[in-house]
Amino acid sequence: MKVWMDFTCPFCLIGLKRMKEALKDSKLGGFKLSSFRLSPKLKENVNYIESLSKKYNVNMEKAMQMTMGPTNTLKSEGLDVDFLKIDELNTTKAHMLLKNFENDEKYLDLAYEIFTAYFVEAKNINDEKVLQEVLNKLELNGDVENILKNDTLLEKVLEDSKIAKSEGINLIPTIVLSSGEKIEGSQSTENYLEIMNFEAK
């Protein structure tokens, strides 16, 4: 089972939190996260609300209203998020770092901590120092600066982009089962448990 996501997508954070909960009670051993970068060409960080305003050609007030749904859902999950404090940014480095630890037992924990550093702590996860802080918090060995020099990790992230395009994935989060079936959008914890147990058969 693969899950396509990006660290700047609030629905992906909601989905991952619920999937981690469901995984505890499922028959599935685990799942992989595939990179779907929402802003791969972005060179400078832009305020999240401003980015929404430009993307959907709406005023700032309307853009702010667009964040209320995910804000309330995140709050119901115990996560307080203020989109005014968050910047839209390039997540390539964060995805590369996660790829480096894809066989580590703390793999999903690392993904979740990157998400929370971005959304809850409003940190710049395109900053190598911030990513190093996340590694240190989880007591994962590795120097982020050196890890990100590994071109193979970048190739894996770029390959994910190619696969997403070829498979017609344009909404995240999207689960792709081993059968090829796609399940789009964040689901309830109960639904995720059902999906995982089905995949485990």
Helices and strands, with pairings:
Blueprint: E1 2-5, H1 10-25, E2 32-35, E3 46-47, H2 48-56, H3 60-66, H4 68-76, E4 87-88, H5 92-100, H6 107-119, H7 128-137, H8 144-147, H9 151-166, E5 174-176, E6 182-184, H10 189-200
Parallel strand pairs: 1-2
Antiparallel strand pairs: 1-5, 3-4, 5-6
In words, what does this structure look like?
- With 201 residues, the protein is of the alpha+beta class.
- The chain contains 10 helices and 6 strands.
- The strands form 2 sheets. A 4-stranded mixed beta sheet has the order 2-1-5-6, with helices on one face. The protein has a two-stranded antiparallel ribbon with strand order 3-4.
- It is globular and about 50 Å long.
- The chain starts with a strand and ends with a helix.
